[in-house]
Write a structure and sequence with these properties.
Layout: H1 3-18, H2 26-35, E1 42-46, H3 52-60, E2 64-69, H4 72-85, E3 90-94, E4 106-112, H5 120-132, E5 134-144, H6 155-159, H7 169-178, H8 191-196, H9 203-209, E6 215-224, E7 246-255
Parallel strand pairs: 1-2, 1-4, 2-3, 4-5
Antiparallel strand pairs: 5-7, 6-7
Helix pairs in contact: 1-3, 1-4, 5-9
The chain binds S-adenosylmethionine.
S-adenosylmethionine binds near residues 47, 49 and 112.
Length: about 260
């Protein structure tokens, strides 16, 4: 990783940690504050990336956090950010749970902007593995930008056109190639690779990925920018064609009885 990439990653993660209104994360932070109290809990931040949200959980709640990720570059930045801010109730590890299962149980397992980046057969195995690490009465919280959203699971940020995922694949690939650049990741080190790693996640694909895991959804919120307007404040726009306006899905999973 070059020094410039490192600094870009550190600044991005620091803003996700410190800035309550950071880009896409303010909705996640607000919902977590409203719905979940992590005080006294053991939290696993699965796919913690550069650690911005792990540090946010650790400093907003009296909890113990473990952040794990398969990408060494991301975990290096997460560890440096932890040291810079002297946060003691969080640890970070490079780990692939399919090769190195975790031993402990966690009350709260978070996959924030992670599930849409993992190929579906692997995601299925990961849910099976994580369900074994979920404490009784614990929950797995999955949040992701669904494929049909205007953000196109993040691709809109690359090409600048909402719903660009519905362009012909060849046209879209050319646009991404034109705007392609290196990114911090070791596993996905440019925007084109990151695009190719997306699994086009929808709620039904997520539900399929849960099969055989012993987990069931107990809560779902489909957030849209339309929720800013008073008449739609609490609306879940899940039905065609309004589902194309949903920018983030939040799902809470618990162990099936
Ligand atoms: C878009 S980032 C999100 C990072 C972080 N959760 C956040 O909200 O800032 C997705 C992360 O998932 C990680 N990831 C992908 N596949 C994974 C796997 N099988 N196990 C652990 N982490 C994984 C990637 O390395 C990347 O850091």
């Amino acid at each position: 990783m070059t020094q410039a990439m490192y600094e870009e990653g550190l600044a991005y993660a620091e803003s996700n940690f410190k800035d309550e209104h950071a880009a896409h994360l303010h909705v996640d932070k607000k919902l977590i504050r409203e719905k979940f109290n992590m005080d006294g809990k053991k939290v696993l931040d699965f796919g913690c990336g550069m650690g911005g949200m792990s540090l946010w959980y650790a400093t907003n709640f009296k909890c113990q956090v473990l952040g794990i990720d398969i990408d060494r570059h991301h975990v290096k930045i997460a560890n440096d950010l932890k040291d810079r801010h002297k946060v003691h109730n969080v640890n970070f590890e490079v780990r692939n749970v399919l090769d190195q299962p975790l031993d402990e149980k966690y009350d709260f397992i978070v996959l924030n902007d992670v599930a849409e980046h993992i190929h579906l057969p692997i995601l299925k195995r990961i849910f099976q593995a994580l369900s074994k690490n979920l404490a009784n009465n614990g929950g797995i919280y999955v949040s992701y930008p669904p494929w049909r959203s205007p953000y196109a699971s993040h691709v809109q940020h690359v090409v600048g056109i909402p719903w660009c995922q519905f362009l012909p694949e060849g046209v879209l690939l050319k646009m991404i190639e034109k705007n392609n650049r290196q990114i911090v990741g070791e596993e996905e080190s440019d925007l084109l690779q990151a695009y190719k790693g997306l699994n086009h996640l929808t709620n039904s694909k997520l539900m399929n990925a849960l099969e055989g895991s012993g987990l069931k959804p107990v809560y779902r919120k489909s957030h849209s920018f339309v929720n800013k307007f008073e008449p739609f404040k609490n609306a879940n726009l899940r039905f065609f064609p309004l589902d194309f306006l949903v920018t983030k899905e939040f799902v809470l999973l618990e162990k099936a009885a």
